[in-house]
Design a protein that fits this description.
Layout (H helix, E strand, L loop, with lengths): L23 E8 L3 E2 L8 E8 L2 E4 L3 E5 L3 E5 L6 E4 L3 E8 L12 E4 L2 H11 L10 H14 L3 E2 L2 E3 L4 H12 L7 H8 L3 H12 L3 H18 L4 H7 L5 H12 L3 H4 L3
Antiparallel strand pairs: 1-8, 2-7, 3-6, 3-8, 4-5, 4-7, 5-11, 6-9, 9-10
Helix pairs in contact: 1-2, 7-8
Amino acid sequence: MSPNGQHALPERPIPALQRLPRPLYARNESLPRQVGTAWHSHPWVQLSYAIEGVLHVHTSAGSFVAPPQRAIWIPAGLEHGVISSAHTEMRSLYLDCAATAWAPAHCRVLQIDRLTRELISRFCAGPVEYDPEGADGRLAQVLLDQLHGAAEVSLSLPLPRDPRLQRLCRQLQAAPDDGRSLGQWSAELAVSEKTLSRLFLRDTGLTFRAWRQRLRLLSALTPLEQGQRVTDVALASGYDSTSAFIAAFRQQFGCTPGEFFRP
């Protein structure tokens, strides 16, 4: 079972790099089907980015989701696994720690604006061993400057430390439409509802209801990006109506599903 509650996926190989050939290294991949990686870490920073498809990065602290126009910043040394949706076009970057000393030491999702997107595409089309003093080296520096200023967006889901809550969360990740109340979960886990509520807030910073809603909305991003009907996605996510789903989506992300995926 994968970290997000799914069954094991075909495994995507991890490049066997001993060191980065340059401070900024690009990796292009076309992934026609859903695949995942084994949990691993790098001695460098990784920017997981896809121009098509949705990426999910899982760490011990939580999960991070990047539809197009967003990317996941993974610090050096952080154990993580990556799941990509079907028909994903990845444009990953590996970054030397010396070139990113300004970055915070935690995993986060970044907004990728049009300029940064074009810079990534252009850099990924260039030579691996570029001339650091030439045009490609200057392009790499501009790209690093753009990433330095990229805004962080709330596309993450914290995971609890308590084993009882972890069991609950794994089941909800496997079935986001599960509508059981906190009281019903407390009976199944043999712990009081009050205790569950307190632990949820302590471990995740969210109430049970808010955590489940964020899970449902983040889980909906992949089928929405793949063009499934909003009504079908809403029902599969546990909402009683399309209007309720859109209202929750707007509350969480500040826009409608259609606006969210607009380039």
